[in-house]
Amino acid sequence: MKQSLMLTLCAVSLAGCLNSPASAEPCSAPDPALLRSTWQSFRTATLTGQPEQVARYYKFPVQLLPPMDGMKSMKISRPVFIKNYTELFQRGPADTEIAMLTAMKKSTGKEYIPQTRFDSAKCAFIGPTRIEDYNFVYDKKAGWLVESLYYDNNDLELAKSSQLDR
């Protein structure tokens, strides 16, 4: 009887310790250098033009945002991203280089990264962090990912008319 009582007390005590706030990990923002490193890796992957490798840096469905308010954005799923990668991110249906690729080629990897705003009460970043035309969000498991990007108006209209979101 004593032994079963001891085991029960130990189990209750252990459960209480595991559920107590003292055992919870403190909330802290990831190292800011991680975003810089992600940007540089994303830039390199984008310039190599391999859809599967580039897709690792996106949160799907990714939104292609128009440059002006009032225009409708496009949502792209992962399969559509892979299938239409060349037309969406390299050479459009009119066989001209996509403006985003031209801009990425001109980048240096040392672009300005604004200070991220972190809410420690919610243990989350407040809104996306914009680098060039890309909006990055932080995922606790996957790290920094591109949630949305600003797409050139001409390229967006060509992509829509060519139904590259399907």
How many individual helices?
A: 7
Termini distance? 68 Å
Radius of gyration: 22 Å
Low-confidence stretches: 5-23
- The total number of structural domains is 1
CATH class: Alpha Beta
Mean of residue pLDDT values: 82
CATH level 3 topology: Nuclear Transport Factor 2, Chain: A
Q: What is the H/E string? A: HHHEEHHHEEEEEH
- Tell me what portion of residues adopts beta-strand conformation: 15-25%
- Number of beta strands: 7
Helix proportion: 40-55%
Name of the CATH architecture: Roll
Biggest pleated sheet: 5 strands, mixed
Structural class, by secondary structure, is alpha+beta
Shape: globular
Name the strands of the widest sheet in spatial order: 2-1-7-6-5
Organism: Duganella rivi
Protein name: Lipoprotein
Keywords: Signal
Molecular structure report:
The protein has one domain (27-161): Nuclear Transport Factor 2, Chain: A, CATH 3.10.450. Mean pLDDT is 82; it is low at 5-23. The strands form two sheets. It has a five-stranded mixed beta sheet. A two-stranded antiparallel sheet has the order 3-4. The protein is 41% helix and 19% strand. The chain is globular and about 50 Å long. The chain has 166 residues and is α+β, with helices and mostly antiparallel strands. It has helices at 2-19, 32-48, 51-55, 78-83, 85-89, 99-106, 153-161; strands spanning 58-65, 74-76, 118-119, 124-125, 129-131, 134-139, 143-150. It is built from seven helices and seven strands, in the order αααββαααβββββα. It comes from Duganella rivi. Keywords: Signal.
